[in-house]
Amino acid sequence: MNIKQYLDSTYLKTAEQADISEAENIGIFTEFIQEAIDENFKLIMIRPNRVALAKEMIAEAKSTVQIGTVIDFPEGKSSLEEKLHEAKVAINNGADDLDFVCNYEAFKNGDIDLVKEEIRECTELGLLNNKVVKWIIEVAALNEKEIIQLSSLIKNVVISTFQEDCFSKVFVKSSTGFYKTENNLPNGATIPAIKMMVENASPLPIKAAGGVRTYDEAVAMIKLGVKRIGTSGAKMIANGQSSNDEY
Ligand SMILES: O=C[C@H](O)COP(=O)(O)O
């Protein structure tokens, strides 16, 4: 099995976050796209405002690299209408996967109907357009009970709304990679969080994202049952694989 099949190679930093100019950030971004083409990654995960440029570069190189983008990133607090609008623009620009940030603050505040509605409506938009949909729950913002409850909620909305053949196209994803924790606690995918997600979201597939940096960490996630790994260290992880690794 090729570990590249699991990797969503990710570049989501804005110029401001990287503390560089917009021109410098575009330079890094184009190198990132070229790397994905050269490495033949399955998919890149990028900001919505970069989808058109990535699409152009990938088409020019006659590459099969797919494009995923993030919606309502990184806080997930926008209205349903705003989420749907951003997703429609991304679809029109050629995105293949839509990684929505779930309104986890609303969930924590008990506004369950709002969360259920956004999951139903946004997932429907994605599936109708033949896209893969992922729901980022931001595990670092949740306690254990909340990780279990939100994973189950997403599963229940999906299985009660859509046909069984769609389940494999709707992921539950751990993290944005941008959540600020107190005391430098991990802000991304951890083994305990991923375990809880796998146990409670199945049959929906899980994407581990945030802080996955090494081949061994990636394999540990795969052994827990994740189907995708979102990482800004995809090349490093892919290069950590020896040719006869099996798992
Ligand atoms: O959505 C994916 C994450 O932003 C990737 O996080 P990372 O930069 O810590 O690998």
TrEMBL record:
Sorted UniProt keywords: Cytoplasm, Schiff base
GO biological process: carbohydrate catabolic process; deoxyribonucleotide catabolic process
Pfam families linked: DeoC
Gene3D superfamilies: Aldolase class I
GO molecular function terms noted in the UniProt entry: deoxyribose-phosphate aldolase activity
NCBIfam families associated with the record: deoC
Protein name in the entry: Deoxyribose-phosphate aldolase
